[in-house]
Amino acid sequence: MSTTASGVTVKLNTGAEIPLLGFGTVSEHDTETFKLALKAAILDAGYKHIDTAWYYNTEELIGDVLEELSLSNKIKKDEIFITTKVWPCFWNDPETSLNLSLKNLKLEKVDLLLQHWPVCFAKIDDSNGNRIPVPKDSNNNILYDKDGDYLITYKKLLKLKDSGKAKAVGVSNYTVQMLERIIKETGVIPACNQVELHPHLPQLELYNYCSEKGIILEAYSPFGSSGAPNLKIPLIIELAKKYNVSSADIIVNYCIAKKIVVLPRSSNIERIKKGYALINMEKSDVDALDNYGSKNPKRYIKDSWGDNIGFDHWN
Ligand SMILES: NC(=O)c1ccc[n+]([C@@H]2O[C@H](COP(=O)([O-])OP(=O)(O)OC[C@H]3O[C@@H](n4cnc5c(N)ncnc54)[C@H](OP(=O)(O)O)[C@@H]3O)[C@@H](O)[C@H]2O)c1
């Protein structure tokens, strides 16, 4: 058994293995800091999974790093599991989005392609011909596509899987009701659903539904996003003392114990190099964290386009 979290995998419903620890690639830093962080994640911490998206604007940097490390024989590109996502402004032409991502990542295919949000924005290009990620009217209201339907996007993603450009297809920010609808309409169960999930938001109903259907849940913003507020939860600090690890290790292992993919982000080289210890968390401690979150639900990512999705604990 691996001693660090980066070596543990779970099987997708396609039969492929996905590493339970993935490197989050939203960036609040300059390009050089981002590249150094990614190199440390791959070379020092042994990350084998990168979670990215067209929307993050980091795909070209990831492509540069993968190219450099592969040309210098430090990695083989196909050893790293790559996830990218289709943003709602591409809801009706996800192939355009995937082609842009593949070009930037310098890859011919990705391991996992996700629909980023089950919402549909209007398709508007700027004067340079680049798609506007979040189109707005003069009153700053988001422009949605009245004819949009997230089911159409899902059907188009399935076709991209058939074309071989994505080895697996999944969704993100879906509720149980939305999962039920796309499964009923297409007969195809998505490989993954990536949602905000952590000990402040255990999403137990969604977890039980996905477990039953064989959908792998992926936890984004595991530390509570910028500033990592979840690391200060008293129960997490207590468990960190009990197992003699960090608070971050507790959150990562909470997810791993539940076979949930966990996607922490960091730009701090020292922290990245340390990686996350793999511990054998007792079931009673996992249950205690579930229980804490059920009683104290808190959502940190509250983008306005989530308003109509019907999330619990949105406000
Ligand atoms: N599908 C979606 O809609 C969606 C939405 C949001 C995020 N995501 C994915 O999930 C990933 C992670 O979520 P996130 O970016 O919101 O944030 P996160 O991973 O929950 O938290 C990141 C923050 O935690 C800090 N941090 C990390 N390790 C720490 C430690 N050991 N001690 C103290 N602080 C620590 C980081 O600061 P330092 O840089 O200083 O370490 C950063 O400020 C994203 O990068 C993205 O890949 C997906």
Average pLDDT score = 96
CATH class category name: Alpha Beta
* CA distance, first residue to last residue: 42 Å
Provide the structure class: alpha/beta
Q: How is the CATH topology named? A: TIM Barrel
Give the tally of structural domains.
1
The CATH superfamily name is NADP-dependent oxidoreductase domain
Radius of gyration: 19 Å
Strand content: 5-15%
Q: Which residue ranges are poorly predicted, with pLDDT under 50 across at least 5 consecutive positions?
A: none
Order of helices and strands: EEEHEHEHEHEHEHEHHEHH
Number of helices: 10
Report on the architecture of this protein.
The strands form two sheets. An eight-stranded parallel sheet has the order 3-4-5-6-7-8-9-10. The protein has about 325 residues and is of the alpha/beta class. The protein has a single domain, classed as TIM Barrel, CATH 3.20.20. The protein is about 35% helix and about 10% strand. Helix 1 crosses helix 2, helix 2 packs across helix 3 and helix 7 crosses helix 8. It binds NADP nicotinamide-adenine-dinucleotide phosphate. The site of NADP nicotinamide-adenine-dinucleotide phosphate (NAP) has 28 residues, from loops.
